[in-house]
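Q: Here's a chain of 383 amino acids. Please give me its 3D structure as tokens.
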Amino acid sequence: MCRKSATVCLIKSPVLDNVAGLSLVERLRLLPDPRRRRGVRHPFVAVLLVAASAVVGGAQSFAAIGQWAANAPQHALARLGARVVGALGVRVTPSVATIHRVVGMACPGGLADLTGADPAGSESLAIDGKAARGSRHGTSPAAHLLAAMTGDGRTVTQLRVPDKTNEITCFAALLEPFDLTGVTITADALHTQRGHVRFLVEEKKAHYLFVVKANQPELHRRLRSLPWKDVTSRRYDRETGHGRRETRATRALTVTDLGLDFPHAAQAVRILRHRTDLTTGKVSRETVYAVTDLTSHQASPQRLGRLARSQWTIENRLHFVRDTTFREDASKIRTGHAPENMATLRNLAINTVRTAGHQNVAAGLRHASYEPFTRPLDLLGIA
């Protein structure tokens, strides 16, 4: 399903053509078992389901997953498809070592794709990366994971960035398996690349809204020099929260005939942010420029401002949650594909509790942990 180096899946697994409507169990059956046939005792899918259920129940490490499995009753193990031994049909759980080995060997690209949400029909899809700091080992750097999340907070997939490269090299591979027709892709200034834009618009039939900073100096200079004072298409938004008051003024300008040298550019956007710290009274000001292929008929300043804000979704609703709720940066999981696959299981848990209606992920995990051998399985749809 994928071509691997020693630690990184380099090409996403093309397994998403006929998975719509399939349950989690049916999706996981599409993954190949990476183990050799000789000596295999525990079903591959059962081990992954044990790990996923334990994480939904609040487990943060392989030791915690193993402890959850060791205490699981027979009715839960039967639902998980655990190994049967003896004439009495007793279900046996995999050991911590087995769980660690299987999760660490599973195809990370396929696992992330098959357990994520379908982005088709979404208004926006945010792309951003995060380093799992605790996965640093010796001279090997920490695993850097590039993820995609819809504007309503559903994680779609993630991909580990190969060592000695950066997120730019993985952008197309991350999004290649998905139908992105009509979806607006947002990303930070690192991904404001001509190749990315052509890939999105010409190959995926998607839209883009990319921030422009000093890494594109000529484009940034041209955007700054546009006649913003004469722009009448604008939007003002004000909100108070998190100990601060913020005002955002969004202006949009059609640039089709202004000679802006960027593929498929239709509008330029300028967002002026004023923030006041309600405790100290300190006022800060920031000006952000962006470019998009959305025309003025497709996106008003109000919508453009909303799309720009959606880029923060992945930071606030995925990376921050994994750090605070799952303590990901403190995790010492380091070997094989285990760092990225454990992050994928956390993404699955976050999607699962949000789908169940929990706005607060930590509260959703606590709710599942009160009946640890029934609620996680029910939430994951394991019959």
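Q: Can you summarize the key feature?
A: DSSP finds 13 helices and eleven strands in the chain.
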